[in-house]
Amino acid sequence: MKSHLNISDKVYKSLKKQIINEKLKPGERLLDTELASEFGVSRTPVREALTRLSNEGLVEIIPRRGVYVKRLNEKDIREIYQIRKVLEGLATKEATLFIDEKQLQRLSFLLEKAEQSLSSENWKACMEFDIELHGMIISNCQNDRLISIMHNLSTLVHAFRMRLARDKERARQALKEHKAILEAIKARDAEKAKKMMMEHIEKAKERIFNYFGFY
């Protein structure tokens, strides 16, 4: 049983990575027989992996038609960021009161690395800081239900994050916004940190809309 679960998890992680990196394109059909052959496994772990990806909103299972990489529309993105703006703003306000100095030092270190990387156009450091900042905020909000909801949104948000990181000007602007959020948290100004986060997420939504050509 454990071996079977490990196989399913490996298939899931591989497909998830390919979707996020757009190796598997939006709208592309995923055939369980072909994937099973590609991974050298039976169809069962492939189907389990596809079900997990469907639950995360990365694939769409259409009865009698098949499984497709999810093609997000304007309404999908608007709803995701509408929810994220409110909930992550709340999480930021709460986390400002609880996040410890060691974690803040870690974020300051990553911010410095990210700022240095801008000149070399190495966006990996910017991405690392982005992920750590949002992750630490969520994990320190002291609200288990909020953490669970944000975890369910995290996969789609990360997919958007990967797309925007390829554009240097968008990455540069996002880093400035992240720096403002971190400074407010370090000052233990919960209301300002919340405001900065909500403004950042609204701007992130606008960048996503531009990326997909919705404006």
TrEMBL record:
InterPro entries: GntR_C (IPR011711), TF_FadR/GntR_C (IPR008920), Tscrpt_reg_HTH_GntR (IPR000524), WH-like_DNA-bd_sf (IPR036388), WH_DNA-bd_sf (IPR036390)
Record-linked Gene3D superfamilies: GntR ligand-binding domain-like, Winged helix-like DNA-binding domain superfamily/Winged helix DNA-binding domain
Alphabetized SMART domains for the sequence: FCD, HTH_GNTR
Pfam families found in the cross-reference section: FCD, GntR
Record-annotated HTH gntR-type domain positions: 5-72
CDD domains the record matches: WHTH_GntR
Single GO MF annotation: DNA binding
Keywords: Coiled coil, DNA-binding, Transcription, Transcription regulation
Positions in coiled-coil regions: 161-207
PANTHER family listed in its UniProt record: GLUCONATE OPERON TRANSCRIPTIONAL REPRESSOR (PTHR43537:SF24), TRANSCRIPTIONAL REGULATOR, GNTR FAMILY (PTHR43537)
Name the UniProt record assigns to this protein: GntR family transcriptional regulator
Organism this protein belongs to: Aerophobetes bacterium
